[in-house]
Amino acid sequence: PSTLKKKVVSIADYSESELALSIYADRIRIFNKVTGELRPLEIHDEDINYLLKYAGRSLNLANRKDGSLLLISNRMFMLDKSSGECTAIAFDGRNAAQGNLFTIGTEDGSLWLHDNFNIYRLAEGKDRIEKIWSQDSALIRAGYLGKDSDIWLATDKGLCMFNHRDRHFQRIETSLFNETNSVVCDLDSRVWIGTDIGLYAYLSENRS
After folding, report:
1. How far is CA 171 from CA 162, 177, 194, in A?
2. Do 137 and 157 form a contact (C-beta atoms < 8 A)?
3. Does the CA dihedral 124-129-132-135 come out positive or negative?
4. What is the DSSP code (8-state) at residue 147?
5. Distance between CA 155 and CA 137 in Å, rounded?
6. Taking the model in full, what pTM does it have?
7. SS in 3 state form for 56-117?
């Protein structure tokens, strides 16, 4: 009942009995899984509080392997849970996100992310975001890190795949749809694709 009519845009672990919820046009709140109660997460950072209250941006949440909580928009911050203080995680060089950052998945402790046109990596134990791959031919709407380092991308040009180890990129040719909105992989290596005209499955091992 405490979350009724609240638009929860992102969820992450906070403690053994609690979840962190990013709520649209509100703030980050802590949800107790036992009692169902909500409490506000105190964040002592002007930039983050401005994004939440005035800039109209929702924060995506992610957990690092060390247990810290990441707050993600077009920038990234690491939250110290005990003090409420945030530390900005910068991009390598002069890079900056083109749109909001969204998580793709984790591999070997590294967190993978995308924005509208690029793929990034935040390596385990590092405090810099690396740009791994960039293109400007397709608008990336969603991404998912599957098996064998394949990153599946839902774009305005259809389903695409980028392998971050060999840097191979390909667009999956099909006459079934032109644009894709969402993508996820299952344990049977099927790639599930959400489009404006329905749900489709791509068998990645058979390439069909």
Report:
1. 9, 13, 16
2. yes
3. positive
4. G
5. 10
6. 0.88
7. CCCCEEEECCCCCEEEECCCEEEECCCCCCEEEEEECCCCCCCCCCEEEEEECCEEEEECCC
Tokens of 130: 């690396």
152-183 confidence digits (pLDDT tens) = 999 999 999 999 999 999 999 999 999 999 99
Task: Take residue 101 and report the two structure tokens written for it.
Answer: 């950052």
Each residue of 111-144: pLDDT tens digit?
999 999 999 999 988 889 999 999 999 999 999 9
Under a CB-based contact definition with an 8 Å cutoff, are residues 89 and 48 in contact?
no
Which tokens in the block code for residue 90? 């910068």
Between CA 16 and CA 32 the distance in angstroms is 10
Q: Which of 96, 181, 179, 103 is nearest to 144 (CA)?
A: 103
Q: How far is CA 11 from the centre of its chain?
A: 11
